[in-house]
Design a protein that fits this description.
The chain is built from 3 helices and 3 strands, in the order H-E-H-E-H-E. It has about 100 residues and is an alpha/beta fold.
């Protein structure tokens, strides 16, 4: 996969009300969406991660949800989803019901 055009991604984040992510997890895409990118997004925007855990920084996303910065987050993947069920934790678990 080629280099991402970060300027183009920033422009998309600034305009979009919904962001749906479909990219592979690589060193280049790890934490592709973190506090820096979330700050550029429209207030109330919704992020949907349908790719891999680790592309969205879960702690930063949880903070954005708790503070009301973003309107929602949908995912079917998480960073530690393949860990032992007794140790599987995420800061997003505290955001249920938002």
């Amino acid at each position: 996969m080629g280099q991402f055009d970060l300027k183009q991604i920033d422009e998309i984040l600034e305009r979009a009300e919904y962001v749906c992510i479909h990219v592979p997890l690589t060193p280049e895409t790890k934490d592709l969406i973190s506090a820096k990118q979330i700050e550029k997004m429209r207030p109330g925007a919704v992020v949907i991660n349908m790719s891999r855990g680790g592309i969205v920084n879960e702690a930063d996303m949880a903070e954005a949800l708790r503070t009301g910065r973003l309107g929602g987050y949908g995912t079917d993947v998480m960073v530690n989803e393949f860990s032992d069920a007794d140790t599987f934790v995420s800061p997003l678990f505290d955001c249920r019901g938002f």
